[in-house]
Specification:
Distance between the termini: 19 Å
Strand order of the largest sheet: 4-5-6-7-8-9-10-11
Number of strands: 13
Length: 321
């Protein structure tokens, strides 16, 4: 019996850039929990934006009692990467001990594939146009933006992929003035939604200016406690397990957000198939699924998730759950 955590990295297929910086690898923490001869596992991606590092998250996990339960875990750790990896590992372990799949234990219907976005990272307009053209066969593209000169990038991506559905993620990079100027052009170019145009905590103007297309809360929405602060400013919420602190809270947030009338997006950090596997369950029926982490990697886990024209498929038991 015991909880173990180790740092791992996965090379990216190409440099991935957002408004906060670039990376060439996905740095993750893998958690394993062994009991009664079986081992459950989970993965998290500590995120500097939320004050997390590999070291700080490792310390949170190693400080837990070895016999921690999912119920006790919710109070033992705050929402975030550490709780996510442990929560998902406990779900996996419970499924193995019961000889059933996680969705059966959770009382969910058997999952199916979900069409997922494919992300184009921030770059010069001509390079983004070329990337859009290479991926124009995909049904949904997500564009990373968040600078004052994004209009040329928007035009370039639409020119490269004239028929593809597009969503935009500003990663808190715009001001209210920049967003107000861009919004009519987002509509003109057929953008389906915009993620987190203004900084979380400085987004009050979203309740005062026109929202001609759906605005999705990402950095502004972590768990159910975030919902009261979103009213009147956002139309959708982006559920990520590294923010909610695992599958347990992600499912609770999903139901609470739906009850309050929010549309759902289910997203991810850049991680392996192990990190995406539980999120596929949350993504069932979501308006937008953005679980393309493995598609951005040059290497992945054994028994990796399967992606095809139908989207991202649920995990095999050999991977998770």
């Amino acid at each position: 019996m015991g909880i173990e955590v180790r740092a791992e990295s996965f090379r990216l297929a190409e440099v991935f850039t957002i408004s906060r910086g670039s990376r060439t690898e996905a740095k993750v923490l893998t958690v394993t929990i062994a009991r009664d001869g079986l081992t459950g596992w989970g993965e998290c991606v500590p995120y500097a934006r939320y004050g997390e590092t590999l070291e700080s998250v490792t310390a949170q996990i190693t400080g837990l009692p070895e016999d921690i339960t999912r119920g006790a875990l919710q109070a033992a750790l705050p929402a975030g990467a550490a709780r996510n990896a442990v929560d998902c590992a406990l779900w996996d372990l419970e499924a193995k001990l019961a000889g059933r799949r996680v969705w059966e234990l959770a009382g969910l219907p058997a999952p199916g594939p979900e069409i997922t976005a494919f992300t184009l990272s921030l770059d010069m307009p001509e390079k983004m146009r070329a990337a859009a053209a290479r991926h124009a066969h995909r049904p949904l593209l997500k564009i990373k933006l968040g600078t004052p000169d994004d209009m040329a990038r928007l035009e370039a991506v639409r020119a490269g992929a004239p028929a593809t559905r597009i969503i935009v993620d500003a990663n808190e990079g715009w001001t209210a003035e920049v967003y107000s100027d861009l919004a009519p052009h987002l509509v003109r170019l057929g953008v389906a939604l915009v993620e987190q145009p203004l900084p979380a905590g400085d987004d009050g103007m979203l309740g005062e200016i026109a929202r001609p297309l759906p605005v999705c809360a990402d950095e502004a929405c972590h768990d159910r406690a975030s919902l009261p602060g979103l009213k009147g400013k956002y139309d959708m919420v982006n559920i990520k397990l590294d923010k909610t602190g695992g599958l347990t809270e992600a499912q609770a947030l999903k139901q609470a957000a739906l009850a309050e009338g929010y549309g759902l997006m289910v997203g991810c950090m850049v991680g392996s198939s192990l990190a995406m596997a539980p999120a596929v369950l949350v993504a069932q029926g979501a308006a937008v699924t953005d679980l393309d982490g493995p598609l951005l990697l040059a290497e992945d886990r054994d028994h990796a998730l399967h992606y095809d024209a139908a989207g991202v498929h649920p995990p095999k038991a050999a991977l998770w759950g």
